[in-house]
Design brief:
Helix content is 48%, strand content 11%. By secondary structure, it is an alpha+beta fold. Helix 1 (12-23) packs across helix 9 and helix 7 (163-174) crosses helix 8. The structure holds glutathione (GSH). Glutathione binds at residues 6, 11-14, 35, 53-55, 70-72.
Length: 223
């Protein structure tokens, strides 16, 4: 199985696809390209059926090349094909809620996405809009409620590590770059997810990169 990704320092969606495979120890070959370059566009153009974006998963299905693009679609495919459904909580009600939370993340939180780009090596200061404050308040509320409800089952949002945690992985990596801390239970969860071995490996590998993507350098460096 092949996974095409962008810069580890910046590429939030790539992190999701990569983490989905790493966290469950599913073997794959990684192909990394620098975002916003001619090489990136040329590599992705080899797969016109897909969206021209990363992550892009390429699997072999009965001798045919199967393309799966979009991070949530990749999570769902891996869950069905390789995890026998273990990527989501086992309980149907918890699973429905987990899917709601994952979908909310996938289709929302635009202010966080726009104003706080993932930039793992950075320490920067940004002036947040009211919409970004609202997004952060919603994160605090969601994570606190879920941790209170599922604490007996494990340290992640629905107890055991699940696709919901994969969906939020870029968010927990965004906040420290801008000095943003959360309410106690939400912050504890963010630290737990950042400490996951696969997250630590991504972070470590991101530190080896030197490319700068200007549009993802938000705000001002902290003096
Ligand atoms: N909804 C998609 C979004 C993917 C996406 O926006 N990827 C960015 C990199 S983080 C990309 O490939 N950008 C390249 C471009 O737009 O040319 C997903 O979840 O995978």
């Amino acid at each position: 199985m092949e996974l095409l990704i962008g810069n580890k320092n910046y590429s939030t969606w790539s992190l999701r696809g990569w983490l989905m495979l790493k966290a469950w120890d599913i073997p794959f070959n990684e192909h990394q390209y620098v975002l916003d370059t001619d090489d990136f566009r040329a590599q992705l153009a080899k797969y016109p059926q897909a969206a021209g974006m990363v992550p892009l998963l390429i699997d072999n299905q009965d001798g045919d090349e199967l393309l799966v693009w979009d991070s949530l679609a990749i999570c769902e495919y891996i869950n069905e094909q390789y995890l026998d459904g273990k990527g989501w909580p086992a309980n149907a009600a918890a699973r429905a809620r987990a899917r709601s939370v994952a979908a909310e993340m996938h289709s929302g939180f635009n202010a966080i996405r726009n104003e706080l780009p993932m930039n793992l090596r950075a320490q920067r200061k940004v002036e947040l809009s009211a919409a970004a404050h609202q997004n952060i308040a919603r994160i605090n509320q969601l994570w606190t409620e879920l941790r209170e409800q599922y604490k007996a089952q494990g340290p992640y949002l629905f107890g055991e590590f699940s696709i919901v945690d994969v969906m939020f992985a870029p968010v927990v990596f965004r906040f420290p770059s801008y000095g943003i801390t959360l309410q106690p239970l939400a912050e504890q969860y963010a630290q737990t997810l950042r400490s996951h071995p696969a997250m630590q490996l991504w972070l470590e590998l991101s530190k080896l990169e030197t490319d700068i993507v200007e549009k993802d350098e938000a705000g001002e460096p902290v003096a």
